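Predict structure. Chain length: 387.
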Amino acid sequence: MNDERLTVAEAADASDERPPERPEQPRQPGPGREERPERAARRRRRGPVLFTLLLLPGLVTVIGVAAFLALTGGPPSSGPEDPDADQAAEVGIDPSYVPWLRQAATTCTLLTPSLLAAQIDQLSGWSDGTDDLSGQKGIAAFTDTEWRTWGRDDDGSGKASPRDPADAIMALGRRDCSLAAEVTALRTAGEVNGDLVDLTLAAYATGADAVAEAGRVPPTARTYLAEVRALLPRYEALDRADSGGGAGTATGVLPAAPVTPLTVTSPYGSREHPLTGVTRLHTGVDFAAPQGARVVAARRGHVAFAAYTKAYGNRVVVDHGTIEGKRLETTYSHLSSLDTAVGRTVEAGTLIGRVGSTGLSTGPHLHFEVVLDGYYTDPRPWLANGG
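Prediction complete.
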C-alpha cells in the first residue's frame, strides 16, 4: 500500500513543471537552533504528500466517470428516449400497451392503433377486471365463448388469457379484421353501403348478419358506433409513427379511361340520390355513355367480383394490388353485360363489360369508383386523362 502511494506521488511530482532541484544538502542549523530530525523529514515529504492527498481523489473520480460513460454510451440525452412511453403518457395508458396496439393494427389495413384503443376504452375503460353479470374479462371484454375463437398466447407467456393485455389486444385485432372482411365482401357485392370502419364497428356490436339485413349501420349499433367515434380523437397520438402515404401520388396511376370519352354527369361527393331521395356520399363518378359502349379495365389487375347486385346492377371489381403499401381497387357498375369473370387477370384496356342501366339507375351510364385501402376516393385524380 505504501509502495503504491509513493509511486503515484512520485509520478505526479515528476509531471510538475518546476525546474529540477539540486540534490538537497543537509541544512546546518543556526547558532542556538538545532533542527529535529522528524521536522526535516516532514519538510522533505510535504510537496508530494499534499499533491497526493488533494488531487488523487479527484483523478480517481474523473477516471471512474469516464469509464461509466464509456460503458453506458455517453451522457444521457436531453431528448425523449422512448417515443412509446411519451405517446402513452399523452393519451393516458400503460406504455406496455402501445407496441401491442401497433402490432394488432397490422393485422389488416382497416385498423389503426387509435381505433383499437378507442374500442378498448369504450368496452372496459382500460380496466382488466371481470364483469360478473356479463362474464366479460380483461381490457377487451371477451366472454369465454368469444375467447375460445379469438384468443391466443401472443406474448409467449405460456397461457392465452383475456386478462393478459397483450393477448387481449391482439385478439381484438383479429376479431375486428374478420368482421372487416365480412362487411367488405357485402359492400363489394352491393348489399350494404357505408364507411367501412363504421360497418365493421356495427358488425362488432350487432353481428355481420344484422348489418347485411339493414344494408347499412343498423339502428341498434349506432350508440356503440357513436361512443367509439367520440373517443377516437383522444388516441390519435398513437397513430403518429404509422402516418404517411395517402393518395398524394394518385395522378395518372390509372392509365386507361374506363369509357371514352370521360364525360362527367355526376361527380364524386355528397348528393341526393335521384331515385331514393336520400342525401349521402356519391362514392364514385358517373360517366355518360350510350347503351352497349365498351367498358375496360383502368389498370392491370385481377377480377375480384363480377356479378349482379340489387343496387349496382351488373358490377365488376378489379383488384390492382398495392400502391405504396395501400390496396387499390376500381369498380364498374350498372353494366348491361359482364365480359369477364372472377379470377381473371386483366390488362389496362381489357374489355370487362358494356354500359347499361341495371340496378338503381335512371339511364345508361357507368358508375366508376376508386377504393384505396377500403375507402372511397375521388376517381378523377387517379385517371391519366382526367374527367
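Summary: The two ends are 92 Å apart (CA to CA).
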